[in-house]
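Usage

Read records sequentially. Each one opens with the input sequence:
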Amino acid sequence: MILNSLDRLKLHEETPLEVDKMFQELIEGVTESILIIGPGGKIEHVNECAEEMFGYSNGELIDQTIEVLLPERFRNSHVHQRQQYIDHPIARPMGRNKALYGRRKCGEEFAIDISLTPLETNRGFVTTAFIRDVSAFKKIEMQQRLLADASAVLAETVDYDDRINRLASVAIPSFCDICIVQVFEGSRLVTRAIAGVDTELLNSVLQGRSISSLYLDESFGTDEVLKCFQIQSYITAPMQARGKRMGVILFAHKRPKKYSAQDLAFAELFAGRSSINIDNGWLYSEAKKQFAFVKRFLQLLLMTSKIRLVLLRALMKFLAMIAAKWTNTNTWQTTLLLDRFIRWNV
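and closes with the structure output:
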């Protein structure tokens, strides 16, 4: 209905700001975010929903180019794409099979869906953009995929250290820029894995030390390592399994980010599910150590038994010689009798 009304409505104003009352009521009366972009790519009208979505005050977007609402990395290419659309205007969804992102005034990026409708005016074609914030849906989709990926990746190995390293890597870049995993060793948190940090930067921070030498307290907020890694915002989530705390996972970003309740809930869910896999890896590691100890013990025991057997047989031969001398019997027969006696009793 809205599209049909807009299609029938011809804008014949001398300037972009002279919008009639009917047009204003139509645009402001819908709950969807709407932008009107002129032939030169400047925003001629924006309704209140769109202003709220992008974080701008009333009238602040008027006469700004549409690229101001895009992440900086897309702005240059979008100018060319916008001109292509003006040359061949058609009502269609924007960016088929592509992930589209908007940029709020505060710098935050979020996923959007856009439908474009051209309108013919005396100044040429203007474009109406209907915009929906789909970040919540995309985030749920990403989180479900990330949980599935984490389970699959961690299932590929049973090694404790390998699982921790894979855990740190799997969250990047879908959920965070940097992931740090710490585990308790006694009462102290020890850094076991860092992912998302440039190798040269990490080496410069470590200065030849191991990752475990990087001490970050449980709040992660007081150590200058955070500054070295250019971390500006982060979430920490506890790792727990079998009723005990195993450690913490830090999900960090290199840009300011406001975390929602959904982000916090997912971080806890991700850490909780991963903890079970990490704990299983630890149990396997401990069982492997115990098995190695038992195997070594049995080897020593077997070696001791062999030594005992050799010594007994040497003693047997010595006794057989003495016995043969005192009893005038054959030494070989005496040795055979003693050998049978030893086999029965050793």
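Summary fields computed downstream for this record:
- The domain at 2-133 is CATH 3.30.450.20 (Beta-Lactamase).
- Strands lie at 33-37, 43-46, 92-93, 100-103, 109-121, 124-133, 178-185, 188-195, 233-241, 244-253.
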